[in-house]
Specification:
Length: 154
C-alpha cells in the first residue's frame, strides 16, 4: 500500500472517531434518553445508555474497563508490528483501536457507552461500533486476499 494512501486512510479514521465522540456529546446534551427521532425509514436517532457490552450483556465495569484496556494494548502491539509495512491490515487495527478507545472513554467518564443510531427499531449502535466492525472486516478481507495471492504465487 502506498504510504500517502495509508496516511489519508489514517486521517479519515481519526476524523470518524472524533465525529463519533462529538455525536455522543451532542446526544447526551440534546436528546432525552430513549426519545426517538426518525432519520430514515429504518434508521432513528436516539439516546441509549448501554450499561453492558455487546447486546447490553450486563458485565460489571470493573471487569469491562481493564479487559477493554488490555485488548486495546494488544491491538496496538499488533498494529505496530504490521506498521513496518503500512497496509490495509494496519488500517484495520487503527479503526478497531479508535472505536474501542472511544467506547472505553465513554465508560470511564459516564459509566456507560452512549449508543445513538437505532436500526430497524431493534439494535442501537454508535459510530465507534461501526469503526470496530469496519476494522475487523478490513483485517479479515485483507488477510484473505493476502492468502489467496500467496497461493497464486506458488
Amino acid at each position: 500500500m502506498r504510504r500517502h494512501l495509508f496516511i489519508i486512510g489514517t486521517i479519515i479514521l481519526i476524523i470518524l472517531a472524533l465525529g463519533d465522540w462529538l455525536m455522543k456529546r451532542y446526544v447526551i446534551t440534546h436528546i432525552v434518553a430513549n426519545d426517538v427521532h426518525r432519520l430514515f425509514p429504518c434508521i432513528d436517532l436516539t439516546f441509549h445508555k448501554n450499561l453492558g457490552i455487546t447486546f447490553n450483556i450486563p458485565i460489571p465495569l470493573w471487569i469491562i474497563i481493564p479487559v477493554t484496556g488490555f485488548i486495546i494494548l494488544w491491538l496496538m502491539h499488533r498494529g505496530i508490528t504490521t506498521a513496518r509495512r503500512p497496509s490495509m491490515i494496519t488500517l484495520g487495527y487503527i479503526s478497531i483501536i479508535a472505536g474501542a478507545t472511544n467506547n472505553l472513554l465513554d465508560r470511564i467518564i459516564h459509566g456507560w457507552t452512549t449508543d445513538y443510531v437505532m436500526l430497524f427499531n431493534t439494535s442501537i449502535i454508535n459510530g465507534s461500533d461501526i469503526l470496530i466492525i469496519l476494522g475487523a472486516t478490513i483485517i479479515i478481507g485483507s488477510t484473505h486476499a493476502y492468502q489467496r495471492s500467496s497461493k497464486n504465487r506458488e
